[in-house]
Amino acid sequence: MAFVLPDLPYAPDAFGATLSAETFEYHHGKHHKAYVDKTNELAPKAGLEGKSLSEVIRAAHEKGDKGLFNNSAQIWNHSFYWQSLTPKAQQPSGELADRIAADFGSVEALVKKLAEEGAGHFASGWAWLVLEGDKLKVTSLHDADTPVVHAGLKPLLTVDVWEHAYYIDYRNARPKYLEAVLNQALAWDFAATNLDGKGVSRADQQG
Ligand code: MN3
To answer: Residue 32 C-alpha to ligand 1 middle, in angstroms?
Structure first.
């Protein structure tokens, strides 16, 4: 067994100009695939063959194996990111809408906070909406760092702010990418599902 590149949950041209098919061709087909290939090369050498992806990420983190951690965490982060996007505009509803109103005041205020967090994050990383304790929280993590190794952060959705996520469509304009994705393409239904605290399992896979 080995880790696989998960299929996108939509057609690569489904987002039109917001995220082009060319972006998916490179971001999913080349960047994400490279993390899968590298992890499949490194995990057996670390004695982790047959472990699940989340087990490999946590073991690499504990051992300080940066190469394996970075590559395996990026498999998980990207698998979670594809599910955090949807080509059909959604709005939060039910419990998620209630929690957003309680913790941020409004969806607009939450989106603004995510945009500021993502745009303000220095260099490569990820903007996250997480459940911390009983509160929704916006945060960001550097490089390949991932909620998989932060037990207190239950992931609800994420936006990739590595340059490779937006350079084809937006060049250096990270705020424009964030404005488009946050307002038109967030999969709020996925975030609502992850309120059960089991978000890590939704991008996990068996090795
Ligand atoms: Mn990426």
So the answer is: 7
Task: Provide the residues around ligand 1 (an ion) whose CB is within 5 A.
Answer: 160, 162, 165
Strand 125-132 relative to strand 135-142, pairing: antiparallel
pTM of the predicted protein model:
0.98
**108, 160, 173, 113: which is closest to 137 by C-alpha?**
113
Distance (angstroms) between ligand 1 centre and the Cα of 31 equals 7
What Rg value do the Cα atoms of the chain yield, rounded? Answer: 16
Distance CA 115, CA 159 (A): 10
Which residues, other chains included, contact 49 with Cβ-Cβ below 8 Å and sequence gap of 6+?
1, 43, 207
Strand segments (E) across the chain: 125-132, 135-142, 153-160
Q: How many A from CA of 161 to the centre of ligand 1?
A: 7
Q: How far is CA 74 from each of CA 13, 33, 132, 164, rounded to the nearest angstrom?
A: 23, 10, 22, 13
Tell me: the pLDDT tens digits for 57-102? Answer: 999 999 999 999 999 999 999 999 999 999 999 999 999 999 999 9
Q: Which of 169, 182, 206 is nearest to 84 (CA)?
A: 182
